[in-house]
Amino acid sequence: MRSYLWIILALCVIAAPAVSADEAVSKPAFAVNAGLESFRWEEFSGGQRLLSETGPRLVVGITLDNLTQGNQANPYAAEAHAYLGVIDYDGQTQAGVSAKTDVNYFGVSAEVMGGLRLAGSLRMDLLGGLGVDTWTRDIQNGVTANGATALGYREDYFILYGKLGPGFLFQSEARQDYLQFGLKYPFYTYERAYLTDIGFDSDVELAPGKQLSGYAKWQMKWGRQADKPRFGLSFYYDSFRFSASASKTVSAAGALYRVHQPESRMDVLGARLEYYF
Fold first, then answer.
1. Which of 107, 202, 89 has the alpha carbon at shortest distance from 151?
2. What is the overall mean pLDDT for the chain?
3. Backbone angles phi, psi at 147, to 5 degrees
């Protein structure tokens, strides 16, 4: 996963000059933020749920945006975040025996959104964006329903995605609000499962299937004058949808096995407190 951090850094660096061409009217707002997320990961096979992972994650990040500035013809936002958490795992072994354990999550993401502000009192925007999300899913050793040990292993994910949807600006003397929502599509997916951790002869690389999902964000900003620090609060929903990957063949103890990533669904509800400079 470390090699992908350079891609995220490059995306942030490229975004800065790319979006600054339209900021002649006013400078974009820079902010640091921190918050909590309610995270859910589920896997399915044949319509039956195989496992569910739920729990809180801590998230911290930085943003650069002018979405809440009403005098911009081309609004934009660029952001980068890191997140981590220890998540409850409620699933089953390959033999179908129920098992419980913990999953350690750590990941980083970066995203650039931009678009056109339409004329009219609604201050409606048409937004599109590109982003990258990469994380480690480290399943710990657990205990099955019959008391046996269930071995855990690690997975790394690397996802490139696009977003498309409208945005709406609401302004008053005391506060600026921005609402955006739309569709999200992972146009590149990569997963590496470290099966050598549980006795296989090699690890395996998989490509989870690509499906549409949704996103939404409500951003509020208030405080003193524009040249003074101010606070903000964001509530958001994010998600991924992956169909089952193609199967790969791996070996262990002289036998061959077919493995794949099942249909997977990720949902995140979160809130972040922001401090603008």
1. 89
2. 88
3. 90, 0
Kindly calculate the radius of gyration of the chain based on its CA atoms and give it in whole angstroms.
21
Per-residue model confidence as pLDDT tens digits over 25-67? 456 689 999 999 999 999 999 989 999 999 999 999 999 988 8
- Cα–Cα distances in Å, from 98 out to 89, 230, 264? 10, 49, 18
